[in-house]
Amino acid sequence: MSWKIGTRIIHEDLQPDPQTGMVTQSITPAVAYAFPDTDTAAKVVSGEKEGTCYGRYGNPTVKILEKKIASLEGGEDCLGLASGMAAISTALLTFLQNGDHVIVTKDVYGGTYSFLDSLAPRFGIEVSFTDCTNVHNVVDAIKQNTKAVYIETPSNPRLTVLDIKEIADVCRNHNIPLIVDNTFMSPYLQNPLELGADVVVHSATKYINGHGDVLAGFIIGNENIIKTMRKKFMGNLGQNLNAWDAFLIIRGLKTMALRMDRHCNNAQKVAEFLSAHPGIENVYYPGLASHPQYHLAGKQMRGTGGIVSFEVKGGTEAAKLLINSLTLAMISFSLGDPETLVQHPATMTHASIPPEERIKFGITDGLIRMSVGLEESDDIINDMEQALEKVIGERVVKS
Ligand SMILES: Cc1ncc(COP(=O)(O)O)c(C=O)c1O
């Protein structure tokens, strides 16, 4: 009998322990693993036989989680890593080497931009930041040495939604792998592999763990590519996820469906409140009919997520005053936690992007990104309302 996603998130690939019957998973912290003989050791090292040879290449607790994430994303295999950036850099470095070119969606997470802008060129990798909302731009950006296309949808922080299937079709025709950062959606709301992507990356620090107490990343793809990433990249760079954090994610993951439904509902209400408020200039949320990719979002995503970005009338000063006036929402870099978190991309998450580039990416100095939490929506909105009153009051005093 097949289960629906909410049930699969809880039960799939998790069995009670055969010896003790315990329902929750145990943690295996071991780094070293003993073999009965040298032949067995050699077979495990070569991958001919299933097993763990050394903690930097994998771990039994992490393996349970990797299997689960692979099946939730509809992939053959998965690799657990120490952070979202470990997953992103490993995925990119697997496909790219000296002399190669990569096409990257225009508004990406600041850490990804920083890696591609400052580190990748040191390895001789050329990057084209491209507006991928129009697939013809992707086609035009392809060069003879293009070895990967990397997109993030919805994007951080402008919530731009890209047509994964359309871009995947172009990539397939040109034999170029498509990598998709699915962090903002989680496997509950969107599955890029089903839409034709080759590799999915996640910052599990966000919605997958969901409690703000673990840094982790995942890469999902076919068996061969994950094997290569595990041995040649993650192993050599020492980017493995540890057993303790994997245990916390296995626990956090069980409530992902409930959490994501609530994040989506709360964010929709916050976005609607903001778009009706006279103190607000623009609201970016794929669940609003005013969003440029509203219909695409409805087709490609099973929910519009928990992040709302917006601009307050009055620019940077007004934005800062609003953020500083919030009493429930906390000023913080992260997202996807139970708590509502708010931040100023131009000076926080996306500060590594030079101002002239930031503007091209739509990240104005007045932009605010809110990760709408799991609190009661009325409380989040009341907090916004009182902060907006302060901003409007300040404007009246000044004028
Ligand atoms: C969309 C996206 N991808 C990747 C990352 C990087 O994740 P981590 O902080 O786990 O390295 C972030 C972090 O905010 C993000 O927002």
UniProtKB/TrEMBL annotation:
Keyword flag Transcription regulation: no
Coiled coil: none
Cofactor(s) required, per the database record: pyridoxal 5'-phosphate
Alphabetically ordered keywords of this record: Pyridoxal phosphate
Domain of life: Bacteria
Listed Gene3D superfamilies: Aspartate Aminotransferase, domain 1, Type I PLP-dependent aspartate aminotransferase-like (Major domain)
Entries under Pfam families matching the protein: Cys_Met_Meta_PP
CDD domains given in the database record: CGS_like (cd00614)
Membership in a protein family: Belongs to the trans-sulfuration enzymes family.
Identification of the protein by name: Trans-sulfuration enzyme family protein
Species annotation: Virgibacillus kekensis
